[in-house]
Queue: 2 jobs
Job 1
Amino acid sequence: MNFMKALIVRDLEKTFLDGFWRTKKKVLKKVSFQVAAGQTTGFVGVNGSGKTTSLKCILNFIFPEQGEILFFDNQTIGPKVKSQIGYLPERPYYYDFLTAEEFLKFHWRLAGKGQGFHLACRQILEKVNLLQARHKKLKSFSKGMLQRVGMAQAILHQPQFLILDEPMSGLDPDGRLIIKEIIREEQKRGTTIFFSSHLLGDMEELCQDLVIIHQGQVKYEGSMNQFILKSNIDYRITYVPTEKWDPLEIIVGKEKLQGEIDRLRQGQNQILKITPAQLEIEKAFSQLISADRSTPETQI
């Protein structure tokens, strides 16, 4: 891998016409972020925040009024870049009368691949637990099976950059486990992964970095750990009470921290450490966007 940034997005703006009166509604407002090579970056936002619109602009499906999008440090999108990208849309469209194998062969050829399809197809279908269904038509597949065959086409040609829009949508627990394992395998292979989800627990489990978008604006860009620590307002004090051996813990808010330290010291307690209390990503995300809940969306 000879690039530092798999994706650079600068100042994206996108406006749609909305409603009967065709009012202009700005859905992306100076959106800027970067995706580091070899990392897994989560793209988080509530419904309607601009996640899918951003991804469609990035992949050149729709066109922003303003902004710049670069891949692999300095390349604009084109056939060469596209051949190195694997993509799973939120609502994929399938040709009902193709079998799973025929569907994958179609995408193999789209990626410009030649020899080696049958082995690659067998390995990928085995990975997503669909090998026995390879000769069945897609119209007979359940929603979960379609999501898994969609994931199979995204990684079939071993892309350098994987873009996934809600990859675990509609999956049962077994299907979610399969997709998570595939993401972990791709991480080990060194693939750059950028995926959107509203399932924040999955983000915390799988991502090193995080981009949060709300009402068309990037509200946070950085590491997952720093986001949780930055949002933290509670601290855990570990101490040993007087004449006892077993340590105890208490959790206090930031505003009460110094008073609690003074109280423990006055009581001759031995303070072992003071650390930020673990904050779940759901709570941290809620804290971040709560200030914007009453802000009206921009209309022109």
Job 2
Amino acid sequence: MMEFATEALVFAESGMMLAALAITLQHLNRLSGRLVVLFIVTILCFLLEHLDIAPAAPFFIRLSLNLGLLVLAWAFWVLSLAVFDDTFKLRWLHWSVLLAKVGIGFYTMLPDPSQLLLWRRDPGFALRSIPTVLFSLVLIISTIIEAGRGNDSDLVEGRRKLRKIYIYCIGGTILYILLSYFFFPDPKYLPIINVMNLAIAGLLILGFFFAAVQYRSDIFPDVEEAKDRPAPVFDDPALREKLIRCFEEDRIYREEGLTIRQLADRLNAQEYRLRRLINGAMGFRNFNDFLNRYRIQEACEILSAGDKSDMPLIRLAMHVGYPSPGPFNRAFRQITGMTPSEFRKSNPDTKIQS
């Protein structure tokens, strides 16, 4: 009975993931689209491993399934970064984490790296798998923390909802599945745990499929709107005038740690209306990007001015609202393509296009 339930769940959920994969394939030109495909493939590896044929499959198949399992937490981590950070790029740090994760996982399974990671019937395997499980837990927990931290500055309404669905539901499910196999390694519990985890994974996959359809324009911002259905743009001329005056005349962006909630209070406006204005009418997907545009513009003007061009960079960073030179340098390079020192040497008399 348990075997039949397991196989039914595996085939049903694999079908749903393949449907989600079909939706995603049209966005392979974007990094986030390619990472969604990778994440789907790792989930399929998790599902297929539950079939009875998996342990008896050829070496290459078992090795591929195991590799997918090892990559799953990493794929979840980098996909989350790509979806919620419009400037995200895969760097050497991300690849180093992947190599370390896979290396530790395969070392755990020596002498036979084709043995499946979490389902091996070895009484001592739970102890040997501690580094791999802890590695995955760190990646998932750091993803949840990072997503929660960026929620306030995110101006895209659909993406803010997606943070809760994607991070807390999907992250929580992966955490539960990892811990269930780790804390209940006794083979006699395995059939029950498999069915429970597959049922929970089914809810996860339904949520993932819903999110891929409902919020695809927020995951893939280059999705073109139908010509006969232009995207609605929210605008409030009075609020926009107050906002621009507050930034250009009062220079409120100089306040360190300014949040959109504090700005809404200063403008005596509802926060959700301010978010819609900055995102829908002014084209910014993140409040920090909006702040950086004004801060770096003033920094460029100071560096180009003859009487202030020699201002120390640490003082300049604090003057325009940054707590330290690090965030200032990163934002400056992102917007201008050069460091503040390079900009000072070139001293171009140009303004940043908004």
